Amino acid sequence: MSPKPGSWWHAAATRVVDLPAPWPGDPYLLGEHALATVVVAWGTGTAVVAVMEGLGRDRGVFGVGRAEDVAEVLTSIVKHGELAGTGVRYATVSRGAVELLAPDARGALGLEGTGSSWDWMWTDALLRVDDHSAAERLPLGPPITDEVRVFLSRGHPTASTAPDDPRLIGWWGVREAGSLHAAVGAIQLAPGMAPHLVSLGVDPGVRGRGLAGVVLAAAVADCLEVRPVHGPPSVSLGLYADNEVARRVYLRLGFELHRRFTSWRLDGPSSG
Fold this sequence. Notes:
alpha+beta, Aminopeptidase, 2 domains, 8-stranded mixed β-sheet, 4-stranded antiparallel β-sheet, 6 helices, elongated
């Protein structure tokens, strides 16, 4: 497939909501990139590849849609040299797409190694938890920051979001005997975007009691009150692809597995 009018777009300062259908309504693009700048995009009705920047992140290239179709669009882009000089520093594409590329196309994109595979999940409805009244919304500020930091050292020591991250809009937790036993945070990548859940943790000594569902349900209920600039209220989260236990929990509670991705840091020709 070669780029042709009606199937690809190129405009400075474009937003996701200005792309051709169906992409302005895609939950992932709205949830993660609604207020980012689309530097350039190529697409069809089943796949879109876009260079985007902003929201405090390096410029990246994203391939969203059916893996086979994303691979087809990427092949065309490489053939026509469209990514040369775009300065992308990382790539996130539908899982399985890169494996369908010819070796020379993959090399031209700088996609070396296996990358990091992860899933993007979301919901626009309350979770299936009968009672989340045991969870409380914790006020942001130094005392809670310190308490959450201590808790995460036990409940989620590999959490990637700092307890004092400026993007945080809240922490939700369950306390027993004055101690946090479960907690989850929510961030906005930028003001006006839908919340994204981070750093879910449960104390090892109380796992198996459903506390993860309790704090998640409370967080989702509050986060659905946030009205994003683009799209309906929703809440998202991400997890590594091999975390099958967490995925089963999220699906049981009512999250939908919307996108499967693999990401790479780029050091090849396309990042120059």
